[in-house]
Amino acid sequence: MTTTVIDVQGMTCGNCVKHVTEELTGLTGVSSVEVDLNAGGISPVTVTSTDPLDEATLREAVDEAGYEVTAIR
User: Fold this and answer.
1) From CA 27, how far away is CA 40, in angstroms rounded?
2) Domain tally, the chain
3) I need a labelling partner for 2 at 20 to 30 A (CA). Which of 14, 29, 33, 52 fits?
């Protein structure tokens, strides 16, 4: 298992969390997504997957949800 933390800017509510979670859980190999909502600030999103995920793929998924990735760790 691999854990990746994505810092996401712009989420403000539970609906935002839902959109980001849906996009990320749709990626191949993702087993769980946990969001620590910091409304209006930068929210850390922890993604657990079977294998390491490509940074571009993670950015694209968050972008599809309508938010901005500020960092991936």
Assistant:
1) 25
2) 1
3) 14
